[in-house]
Amino acid sequence: MDAIQLFAALLAQRGRVRSVEYSSFPAYDNLIKAGLIEEFSVVSSMICDECDHPHDAKIVFEGSQYGYYCPQLGFVSKPRSELIAVQPNLSAFVSQVADALDCKRRKSAPLDKDTWRIGAIESTAGDVVLYLHPTLQEARDLRGVQAALASEVRSPFGVILTSSGTLTAPPFVTAQLDDVLSFDSKAGKLSMVADVRAIAGVPEQRTGGRPNEYERPLSELIALRASQGRALKGRNVEARAIIVEFKSQFPNIDCPSLPTVQRYVTKIRSGS
Ligand SMILES: [Zn+2]
Q1: Could you tell me the maximum CA-CA distance found in the chain, to the nearest angstrom?
Q2: What percent of the chain has pLDDT over 90?
């Protein structure tokens, strides 16, 4: 399980779960360090798996020991280390995604109980707004999203990120976390691996038949920086650096917009 899959698995639980069930994955520590998941004191209950009939059991602290009562086995003691709770930190997650996309109209608190607005990015056809909802599997999830969106400024395009489930709230599109995000464990940061505007259905801008003057010099500049080892790791920062270099090298050619340059960087990096 990579970091995004692990984060999504925890998000899908919609509450605190025992860290011991997830902490053996290498990505666990990276997510903790990045502040994307948080550990808490002991869980309030767990599933008893020591008797013949798995059942939910309330954790109690008795005679200096943690444990629970099982109808079959009586008091079952558990070391505290096996009872530590873990949960995604959605406020941190939302703000890191907003950073990765350089979003405006960010919101650091949920719109209602479960729906978060990450922020908005501009496109040629209007703003694309990003939201997060833990799961979109049941009618109840969808009702929650729709209720939260009702008080939002209308936008023609939007993407709702979720850990699992494919229900949609048109005109917005639902996207799975691990299809659009990746986690750089060295930098401890999230980055976008998909074009949010394209996912949201923003139509590609037509160039009116005239070939893009910038296309060739831009592609060559991106490749040159990469071959000289000057390319910056983050797509955003690299695109910004390219724009600066492009303008100084080709003052007579209109420099394309940041999203366009980002698209070219992605295209050339992926080798297509
Ligand atoms: Zn039991």
Answers
A1: 82
A2: 72
Distance CA 167, CA 142 (A): 7
pLDDT of residue 36: 97
For ligand 1, the distance from its centroid to the CA atom of residue 1, given in whole angstroms, is 30
CA of 78 to the centre of ligand 1 (A): 13
**In this structure, how many other beta carbons lie within 10 angstroms of the beta carbon of residue 96?**
21
Rounded CA separation 98/231 (Å): 23
My answer on whether omega of the bond before 171 falls inside 30° of 0, hence cis, is: yes
- The CA distance from 180 to 161, in Å, is 9
Percent of the chain with pLDDT over 70: 97
Bigger pLDDT: 224 vs 211: 224
pLDDT tens, position by position, 40-63: 999 999 999 899 888 999 999 998
181 CA to middle of ligand 1, Å?
40
Q: What is the pLDDT of residues 3-33, one digit of tens each?
A: 999 999 999 999 999 999 999 999 999 999 9
In the predicted model, what is the mean pLDDT of residues 173-199? 92
End-to-end CA gap in the chain: 27
Task: Give 66 Cα–ligand 1 centroid separation in angstroms.
Answer: 15
- Tell me what the mean pLDDT of segment 99-113 comes to: 93
The first and second tokens of residue 123, run together, are 């496109």
CB neighbours of residue 229 within 10 Å: 6
> Ligand 1 center to residue 61 CA distance, Å?
17
Q: Spell 61-91 as b/e; 16+ CB within 10 A means b.
A: eeeeebbbeeeeeeebebeeeebbbbbbbbe
Indicate the domain borders of the chain.
3-88, 90-200, 215-269
